[in-house]
Description:
Layout: H1 2-29, E1 33-48, E2 59-70, E3 75-88, E4 93-104, E5 120-135, E6 138-150, E7 158-172, E8 175-189, E9 200-213, E10 218-229, E11 238-251
Parallel strand pairs: 1-11
Antiparallel strand pairs: 1-2, 2-3, 3-4, 4-5, 5-6, 6-7, 7-8, 8-9, 9-10, 10-11
Amino acid sequence: xxxxxxxxRLLAALIAVSxxxxxxxxxxxxxxxxxxxxxxxxxxxxGSLGIIDxxxxxxxxxxxGQAREDNSFRNVYQGMAxxxxxxxxxxxxxxxxxxxxxxxxxxxYSGANTHFTKYVGxxxxxxxxxxxxxxxxxxxxxxxxxxxxFLPGNNNEVRYRPRQMLxxxxxxxxxxxxxxxxxxxxxxxxxxxxxxxxxxxxxxRAFIGAGWTFNKNFRFEGGYMNxxxxxxxxxxxxxxxxxxxxxxxxNF
Length: 252
C-alpha cells in the first residue's frame, strides 16, 4: 500500500511539473492558440553492436521512425527518421551522436500565418546523454539532447534547441508485463533566428499511458500525449495538439 501511494504521488508530481511550462505560456498566448486532435506512431529499435563483434559490445545503435497526423487525423503533416551511434559508459549511462530528418507538410489552419505552405524539410544533428535509474518503485530515465536545427528559409542560420526528458515506468505487481508510463519533455530555443523563433520556451510534450512487454526484445506503448508549441510553423500562432500516441520498441 505504501509503495502504491508513493507511485501515485510521484506520478502526480511529474504531471504537475509537466504542465507548468504549458500553463504559463497559454496564459500569455491564449487568444492565439489553435487546438487540434491527431496521432503519432513510432517504431524505435536500439541495441548493442556486440551482435557483430563482442569487442564493440559497448557501442550502440539507435534507429527510429515516426508518422504524425493532425487536423483531426485528416492530414499527415510530418514524418521523422532518426539514426544515432552511442557508447555505453556504464550500465546506466549512455552518450549519443545522431542525425534526424523531418519532412513536413504543414496545413494552413484558420488564423495561422504559415511561412511555408507546402513541403518543409528540416535536418538536425545532435549529441545526447541518457541515464537510466531503476528503483523499487519503477524506472526513471533522464535524457538530455542539444539539437542543431537546419531550417529551410532560415538565412543559413542554425537554431540551437536543448531538450530535456524525464520518463517514469512502473510495472504493476498483479501483471509485471503491464506498466504505467508517463514522461515529459521540454524544449527551449537557445538563439533567436529568422524563422526558428525567439530564444526561450519552444514547446512541451507530456505523455501518460500504458505499456505491454511481450519479451525482452519487444514492448508496445500507447496513450495520450499533449504537445504545446509556442509560435509554431514560423508564426505568432501557438498550437495545443491532443494526440493518441502508439510506440513499438525493439531491443536487440
